[in-house]
């Protein structure tokens, strides 16, 4: 039995009720905390601050107007990417601070935790909000992957998305799952069109022949 009811509908636009809810969410202080990430560059260009807000916009695009979820999305990388970040800066922001902090911790890789262990933890024990946040985070990352020309990095990221993120998305939001599938397809097509797949096949066949 699934823990959560999977979301299957995606809104075409923000209705008035959602607009009023969003209007009352106190986001500015969390955006200010996110500016600590301006100096953290990304593999695809830009910086980690922009990625935080992009992740938040993806959640809004999918109709999620939840104060703790949106606030956490604004700062979901600060603990992992800012050494020694003082967690009380999150807790003391407002009445949601403690819940936001706990959600950020859920999507933060722990010391000594491998990436597969981290993602498996979210699959096995993550809250619904943590899973939604991770899906939005990965959608943002997969879109940015379109600006990356390192084929091994792209292949690894696609493999990781299929193995770990697809199951998360399929549990919480079918439309996020569909978008992730589409993004993986386009990235794998790039690998095929660039000749990388044929090159890897040729190398594998050569190694197999040498090991006979």
Write a concise synopsis of the structure shown:
This protein is about 65% helix and about 0% strand. It is mostly helical. Helix 8 packs parallel to helix 10.
Q: What does this molecule look like?
A:
The chain is an all-alpha fold. Helix content is about 65%, strand content about 0%. It has helices at about 15-25, 30-35, 50-60, 65-75, 80, 90, 95-105, 115-125, 130-145, 150-170, 175-195, 195-210. It is globular, with a radius of gyration of 19 Å. The model has no long low-confidence stretch (mean pLDDT about 95).
Question: Could you give the topology of this structure?
Answer:
Layout: H1 16-23, H2 28-34, H3 48-61, H4 67-74, H5 78-81, H6 88-91, H7 97-106, H8 115-125, H9 128-144, H10 151-172, H11 174-193, H12 196-210
Helix pairs in contact: 3-4, 3-9, 4-7, 8-10, 9-10, 9-11, 10-11
> Which percent range fits the helix content?
55-70%
The quaternary structure here is single chain
Mean of all residue-level pLDDT scores: 95
Unreliable spans are none
Short descriptors:
212 residues, mainly alpha, 12 helices, 66% helix, globular
């Amino acid at each position: 039995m699934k823990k959560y009811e999977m979301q299957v509908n995606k809104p075409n636009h923000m209705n008035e009720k959602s607009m009023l809810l969003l209007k009352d969410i106190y986001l500015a202080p969390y955006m200010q905390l996110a500016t600590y990430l301006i100096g953290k560059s990304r593999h695809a260009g830009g910086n980690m601050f922009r990625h935080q807000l992009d992740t938040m916009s993806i959640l809004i695009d999918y109709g999620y107007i939840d104060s703790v979820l949106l606030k956490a999305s604004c700062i979901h990388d600060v603990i992992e990417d800012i050494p020694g970040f003082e967690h009380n800066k999150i807790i003391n922001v407002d009445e949601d601070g403690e819940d936001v902090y706990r959600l950020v911790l859920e999507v933060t890789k722990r010391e000594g935790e491998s990436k597969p262990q981290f993602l498996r933890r979210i699959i096995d024990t993550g809250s619904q909000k943590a899973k939604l946040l991770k899906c939005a985070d990965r959608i943002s990352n997969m879109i940015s992957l379109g600006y990356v020309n390192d084929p091994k990095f792209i292949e690894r990221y696609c493999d990781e998305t299929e193995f770990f993120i697809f199951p998360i998305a399929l549990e919480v939001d079918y439309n996020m799952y569909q978008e992730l599938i589409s993004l993986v397809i386009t990235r794998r097509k790039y690998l095929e069109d660039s000749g990388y797949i044929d090159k890897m096949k040729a190398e594998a066949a050569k190694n197999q022949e040498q090991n006979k």
